[in-house]
Amino acid sequence: MAATAPSPERAAALTRYYFLRAGVAAAWVAAAFTIGGANPLIGGALLVLYPAWDAVANARDALANGGLRANPAQALNLGVSAVVALGVALLMQVDMARVLQLFGAWAILAGLLQLLAGVRRWRAYGAQWAMILSGAQSALAGGFFIQQSFAPVVPSVLTTVAPYAAFGAFYFLVSAIALTIRNRRRKA
């Protein structure tokens, strides 16, 4: 149970944020499996856009919830995701196995940061179990990406990352629905 309930406006803003994250991730997955798989240039752009969007989303989330100083997990995730986007753009020119390793390292760190943010928000908002589970699963997936990068034949980074993004969309959607239900119960 939450010690101090957030204002209805903040709770509604977090719910909208989770719906936005779910929608953008679902659109990214659809693009990855359709046009991204058919066109290497678009596929490469999608690989850069995924962590870039995560950086923007973390900035938006932190700023809507008291700023970067008040949200150190999102602030760190913002910086890491921006660096990863740049790193993906550079490494795609060198070696796709390294791109998969970078995505793996990022998934581990971003997952742990998401897990921390979920635990922290649980006290105020409740209904964060899906975010906590998503963070833990992200960290595990990151290890899997790194393991796959050492395979004799490195799998397509886009088709390896797309199911990971699909699970992220699912978890954000579940979180948005759970918060919607919780917010309605608080109003009743």
Largest sheet: none
What's the total helix number? Answer: 6
Q: Poorly predicted ranges (pLDDT <50, ≥5 residues)?
A: none
Mean pLDDT across the residues is 92
Number of strands: 0
Derived from helix and strand composition plus strand pairing, the structural class reads: mainly alpha
Q: Which helices and strands occur, and which strands form pairs?
A:
Elements: H1 8-38, H2 40-64, H3 72-91, H4 96-125, H5 129-149, H6 157-187
Helix pairs in contact: 1-2, 1-6, 2-3, 3-4, 4-5, 4-6, 5-6
Q: What does it look like?
A:
The protein has 188 residues and is an all-alpha fold. The chain is built from 6 helices and no strands. It has helices at residues 8-38, 40-64, 72-91, 96-125, 129-149, 157-187. It is elongated. The relative contact order is 0.16. The mean pLDDT is 92.
Question: Can you tag this structure with a few keywords?
Answer:
188 residues; mainly alpha; 6 helices; 0% strand
Describe what is shown at a glance.
This protein has about 190 residues and is mostly helical.
